[in-house]
Amino acid sequence: MIPASSILLLTTLTGFGFGLLAWLGLLAAIGGLPDSRLFAPVAVIVALAFSGAGLAASVLHLGRPERAWRAFSQWRSSWLSREGIAAMATWPPALAFAGAWWWLGPQAAATRLLGVAALAMGLLTVGCTAMIYASLKPIRQWNNRHTTPDHLLYAVFSGAVLLAALWSLWFGAARGPALAALAAALLAGVAKLAYWRFIDHQAPLTTLASATGLASLGTVRPLDQPHFTENYVLREMGFRIARKHARKLRHIALMLAFAVPALLALLAALGAVPALTAPLAALSALLGLLVERWLFFAEATHVSAIYYGR
Amino acid sequence: MTSLPPPQPGAKKLGLVIDLDTCVGCHACAVNCKEWNTGGHHAPLPDYEPYGKEPDGVWFNRIHSYEVEADGGSKTVNFPRSCLHCEQPQCVTVCPTGASYKRAEDGIVLVDTDLCIGCKLCSWACPYGAREFDEDQGVMKKCTLCIDRIYNESLPEAEREPACVATCPSRARHFGDLGDPESDVSRLVAERGGADLMAELGYRPTNKYLPPRKAAIAAKPLERPAAGGASALLRLIDRVLSR
After folding, report:
1. Which of A75, A248, B187, B191 is most buried, judging by how many CB atoms fall within 10 Å of its CB?
2. Residue B229: pLDDT band by 50, 70, 90 thresholds?
3. Can you list the domains of chain B with their CATH numbers?
């Protein structure tokens, strides 16, 4: 599948934004956020800025962006529609949570309840995004039990490193969130390794023989192509330029997205210039997760390319 | 509405039956389809750089050729690929806007290009690569089963069939109601063992493909005239003409 930059930005940035929102909501509910009047509301704004940037990028992916509002209508059947609605529905509780923190205070029941609502809506949106991919039967690398939990885990990890970065920049130290980021980085890295192992050992369900209905006749191989130049199907679904670099890119993704942030988060937790190491961890995670997401697309094969022998 | 219409017993399921035994791979179906549809329901079907180095464009039929190898020989199979108007079309259910829909009355899968936002998700959900994106208009396009021919009362009744079927010189394409077990196309499928493509994915395509009658045709070794075998007259003519 072609890794369109708008979609890479969408899934990565909303992971950071909604992940951060989920952490803020959780910590507010259990009384784990610093007792600062300004920090939580500002962090909520940062979270919404990340998510908003991702959603704006996704609109640019559309052939007719001016009609984007129509995507809110088919929530009964479409995960994309559900994602759009969930993303929009996350804003009111998130803003109300920030407002309640400011006006009613961290201890108010309303603040805590709205924190839980923001947490739930943020994760729900990430889950809907993941289900868009997980539900596509023609793509075996997505249509499996790894996709949705993995995306949720990456969002939780992204949110944790972003929270640690903000926390350490604000207060100079961030032991708790840095440890959370460390644990999430290790979990997410293991999940990614498990995913790669899974797709490498997965036997394709569909073959050229089943795609042509000629299985009972013998072995089938492509002879003549329908056209000599690329068409939409080949460009979009037959993308394969990157696959030869996949192994190197996997190493890069693993290092940048999980190993380096884990190390930097550990340093931040130990108190080694947290105001520098924690933001660097977040930056590394952002770059690494963009590579990881690029691979998620580039390594995904679509069964329609089988007709072309790809 | 992108939820699928509830299945009705005995409902019409219009579709194609494609005979891989008689298809000669001439691409006439693809060309006539392009010709009709660039002025029809989904008009225009764009071409990009039609006279350039990398011509490209939206086509609803793509004609592949495969070689099937079996014991005793092999066989070329020409294989036209187009929308199969599935009974479980995921391209419809993933659509966030309601632009993609399956008609309850005849099972035809269509796109309302006035509602389409061009998110391309339907093309990802189609395992058959049947949908092609119109880069000029920013919307998705697909085979309409020539909805503007099959119900077109200004055409003579005999011509109310899809353009690909009307033009096929080897009568390898058949159009009809696959929901009616007594229809000509349903009988053809039953007699010839018509197959679903990628049945394992569960889309339950309406269109069926009839397999070649013989898996392989054993060919005699090529006969080459032996140099000394020709008659004296022919050798003389050969010598004169070779000068």
Report:
1. A75
2. low
3. 14-210 (3.30.70.20)
